[in-house]
Write a structure and sequence with these properties.
Blueprint lengths: L2 E5 L10 E2 L1 H4 L3 H9 L8 H15 L9 E2 L5 E7 L2 E7 L3 E5 L2 E10 L1 H5 L8 H18 L5 E8 L6 E6 L4 H9 L2 H7 L8 H14 L2 H4 L8 H19 L1
Parallel strand pairs: 2-5, 7-8
Antiparallel strand pairs: 1-4, 3-6, 4-5, 6-7, 8-9
Helix pairs in contact: 2-7, 7-8
Length: 246
């Protein structure tokens, strides 16, 4: 069983790793390298543009909310302790909103014109669901409040007057907690005794993780050279060949 301690705003502990809801929607390999400062690489101009437009939208985020009453919202900081492993988990949702049906999380996402017009998946993307589930879990652990709904608001970065909000499904509190506690990168970086969680174990779990979350490789800048992606692609091609040869 995990133990949690709420950290006061501004409180920090040197040497304790910090993870965020956004981290949970990243490839475990990229997240590991980011935390360790390894393999820095240059983003493409297209990716830089996407980040820049997303930053502008979040600076002006008040314009884009759905119109319900916004609740007081501060960064939540939680220390997680499990099996003598310690790390911080911190997050700040774009909005915690209130309407006649109660509290809900609203998260802003800038996107291309094409993605904006094809935003009709009732469940939202896997990455989006992971992030709002993380905010929900944080609010439950800190305040004991279960937020039942989450809304993703998509904003067309080519014309920011275009916006569309959609309610999305979230993981349950227990599902997200299990996801966090068993995340390969969290385990890899928090086990002091590396014999308990070896590099081989990490890579095998990452492969299983990405096998279930292939969307992580779709727009990844490292996909063409990533051994795990290449290996999984070979597996998938073999499966297709076997399927159509029957």
């Amino acid at each position: 069983m995990s133990e949690f301690r709420r950290l006061q705003h501004g409180e920090s502990e040197k040497g304790v790793l910090r993870f965020s809801p956004t981290d949970m929607a990243k490839c475990p390999i990229i997240l590991r390298d980011k935390k360790l400062g390894l393999h820095e690489y240059e983003f493409s101009e297209k990716t830089k543009h996407i980040f820049a437009e997303g930053s502008k939208i979040h600076v002006l985020r008040g314009i884009y909310r759905t119109g319900s009453k916004e609740q007081v919202n501060t960064e939540l900081r939680m220390k997680c302790i499990k099996d003598d492993r310690e790390y911080m988990f911190t997050g700040y949702a774009d909005f915690i909103m209130l309407d006649e049906n109660g509290l809900y999380i609203e998260d802003l996402k800038s996107c291309s014109r094409r993605a904006f017009y094809f935003f009709n998946n009732e469940k939202g993307s896997t990455g989006e669901r992971i992030q709002v589930s993380a905010y929900r879990w944080l609010y439950y652990v800190v305040f004991g409040v279960i937020i039942e709904r989450a809304v993703i608001t998509k904003i067309d970065r080519d014309n920011t007057l275009n916006k569309f909000s959609l309610e999305v499904e979230m993981m349950s509190i227990n599902e997200f907690e299990e996801f966090l506690m068993n995340h390969p990168t969290v385990k890899m970086l928090t086990y002091d005794n590396k014999e308990l969680y070896t590099l081989e174990m990490f890579l095998e779990e990452v492969k299983d993780f990405i096998r279930k979350e292939r969307w992580l490789c779709k727009y990844c800048e490292r996909a063409e050279t990533c051994e795990i992606n290449i290996s999984l692609s070979v597996e998938e091609d073999l499966e297709k060949t076997e399927k159509y040869s029957k």
